[in-house]
Amino acid sequence: MPAAEPVFRREFPVKGGDFANAGAAACEIKELLKDLGLATATIRRAAIVAYEAEMNVIMYASEARMNLAVSSEEVRLTIDDRGPGIADVELAMTEGYSTATAEMRELGFGAGMGLPNIKRNADVFAIDSEVGRGTRLDIIIRTNGHGPS
After folding, report:
1. What are 137's strand-pairing partners?
2. Pick from 144, 137, 148, 4: which is nearest to 67 by CA?
3. Residue 28 three-state SS
């Protein structure tokens, strides 16, 4: 069965290394989902996913496009970054594993929970990464009948 047609779409550019604006796209996504009338639980999960994905781009990639599509059935976030890629995706999915620098850790980031948190809050999670090119995340959070009003 094909997914329902999105009633809302928006693209958010994310710049690598931009710690001053860390979380800005995730906050905007959270507010947009509130305005669309989605259930609180769906908004919370989408905000966590968006924040973790945004931070991964800021910490490791040069840039990315975060695409949000909302339908009556799902919230879909797709993040395509240009960056170093992930050599061992399975290892990167391990809670606590991190390649964060000392500088990132001093800022309070790099606990190694980003990708696991994204997967935990997604109903569908796909990751495709190529070393030297970048990483693509495709995340679906189902609205369970509580889509946009």
Report:
1. 79, 127
2. 137
3. helix
Cα torsion 7, 45, 90, 66 to 10°: value is 40
pLDDT digits (tens, 9 = 90+) for 86-139: 999 999 999 999 999 998 898 888 888 999 999 999 999 999 999 999 999 999
Diameter over CA atoms, the chain: 47
Q: Is the Cβ–Cβ distance between 140 and 123 less than 8 Å?
A: yes
Neighbours of 113 (CB within 10 A): 14
| Structural Rg of the chain based on CA atoms | 15
Give me the amino acid identity at 101. T
Q: What is the pLDDT of residues 60-81, one digit of tens each?
A: 999 999 999 999 999 999 999 9
